[in-house]
Each structure stands twice: as C-alpha cells, then as structure tokens.
Design brief:
- The chain has helices spanning 2-35, 67-90, 95-121, 182-197, 199-203, and strands spanning 41-45, 48-55, 148-153, 157-160, 172-175, 179-180.
- The strands form two sheets. The protein has a four-stranded antiparallel β-sheet. The protein has a two-stranded antiparallel ribbon with strand order 4-5.
- It is of the alpha+beta class.
- It is built from five helices and six strands.
Length: 214
C-alpha cells in the first residue's frame, strides 16, 4: 500500500509540474504575441529585457532541418520522455530525477504547442501591429509549421571586441545573446540538473519495465 501511495504521489507531482510550467509558458507567450509587435523590446533593467521574436527552430533560436521534420522529432521525443517518466515513477526513482524529467517534458510540450497550433489560430506577427486570434485554420501557417514565441533576453555584458583581435576586432559583443522562453529554460534547467546530480540514472537508462517487487 505504501509503495502504491509513493507512486501516486510522484506521479501527481510530475503531472502538476508539467501543468504549471505549461500554463506559465503559454500564458506568457500568448500575452507577448497579442500585446507586442514583432521585435518590440520592453526594458526591465539594463541586463534584462522582454524582446518579442519568433523562430522556426529548436531552443534558443537554433534551426536544424525542415520545420515539419523538427516538429515530428519533437513529438517522438515527447512520447519517449513521457513513457520513460512513467516507468521511473513506477520504479520509485528519486524524486529529483522525476522532477527533472517532468521539467524537460513540460518544456518540450510547451514549444511543440506553438508549432502545432499557433499557425492555425494567429495571424502573422508584424513590426507594424500586434498579432490577434483568427478563426481556427485561417492563420499564418499550417499544422506543425507554426513559429515558436521567445521573449527573455539577458544581455549581461554589452561591449566591443578589442581592435587587435583578428576577425572580430571592433565589432559589438553581447554576452548571452540568445532570446528564449519558459519552455527553453525548463528544458535547460532539467538537463543541467540531470548532468550534475543524476549521472548514475542517466548511465542506466532503459525502456524495459523492471519488477520492483522482486
């Protein structure tokens, strides 16, 4: 009975983490998309800005391959993570490990939602006007080809490369220039935490269910 209770507790915790991250991620994305013009920037501090951009690729604006292929890969990855997370909950994995997996899964779902549905329910973003909802299916892109909304920008150091440096001398330099969203941050924190504290679990990853009662 106590083992079943532990499974239920960790399972519910994982679900709550995923739901909470998705809510924050999607509410913020929709607010930015419907209240800011494309590339508009709101300065919070010199090193923290809200900057509305959209991208076709992976986390932090990277682009790899076709949009549809990338979206299908994300769906496959989410399915893999979801099944593996389910196994880990049933096998009484450490709580922190379950939390990390839930954060990674939530981030992956958050960005795939943009790709799947934003192109169907929003008009195209523009530097001249804010985006708005349109009748389902009449938006700016087809299913799986929507753009991911990013907004967090942390230009911690803004400077200029010394003139004597080859190739980049005299050019502007920004330390940590990527613009990202809550989903990206959730994935990154989850992955870093796994690498720092759960390398043993990572080295024994298996999709084969274990008999926890033996």
């Amino acid at each position: 009975m106590s083992e079943n209770k532990g499974v239920l507790t960790k399972g519910r915790m994982a679900i709550l983490i995923i739901i909470a991250i998705l809510l924050v991620d999607q509410v913020l994305k929709i607010w930015v998309k419907t209240h800011m013009t494309l590339h508009e920037t709101i300065t919070i501090t010199d090193w923290f800005k809200i900057c509305f951009i959209e991208n076709n690729g992976m986390a932090y604006g990277m682009e790899i391959g076709s949009k549809v292929a990338l979206s299908l890969f994300r769906i496959a990855a989410i399915s893999f993570i979801g099944y593996y997370l389910h196994l880990q909950v049933r096998q009484h994995a450490r709580t922190g490990y379950v939390v990390c997996l839930a954060m990674i899964m939530a981030g992956a779902i958050g960005n795939i939602i943009d790709c799947m549905f934003y192109g169907l329910i929003f008009n195209a973003s523009s530097v001249d006007y804010t985006s708005y909802f349109v009748p389902f299916g009449s938006g700016y892109a087809s299913f799986l080809t929507g753009k991911v909304v990013d907004m967090f920008y942390f230009p911690l150091i803004v400077s200029t490369w010394p003139q004597w440096m080859p190739m980049v001398g005299g050019e502007d330099f920004v330390f940590f220039s990527p613009v990202f969203n809550v989903a990206d941050a959730s994935i990154s924190v989850g992955v870093v935490w796994l690498l720092l504290f759960y390398r043993r679990e990572i080295s024994h990853i298996s999709l084969k269910p274990k008999d926890v009662n033996r």
